[in-house]
Design brief:
The protein is mainly alpha-helical. The protein is built from four helices and no strands. α2 packs across α3.
Length: 71
């Protein structure tokens, strides 16, 4: 049985994936590159991509951010 660090396990949730994306935005020159880096980190651990594409992630992110603004 493999034991993963808590920071890796956070990638499973949208919030954790988005948090890592925002961290990667600080070191990448575009949002798309930050997304690709985050997906690469996710795939290294879980063996598959979390989102089908950058556009798919953007749509989910926009919905979640809009929903959180309403609260």
């Amino acid at each position: 049985m493999t034991i993963y660090d808590k920071t890796i396990l956070k990638l499973i949730s949208f919030e954790g994936f988005n948090q890592r994306f925002e961290q990667n935005m600080r070191v990448c020159n575009t949002y798309k590159n930050a997304y690709l880096k985050t997906e690469e980190q996710y795939k290294d651990v879980f063996g598959e991509k979390k989102y089908a594409s950058y556009d798919s992630f953007r749509i989910v992110r926009a919905r979640k951010m809009k929903k959180n603004k309403k609260k």
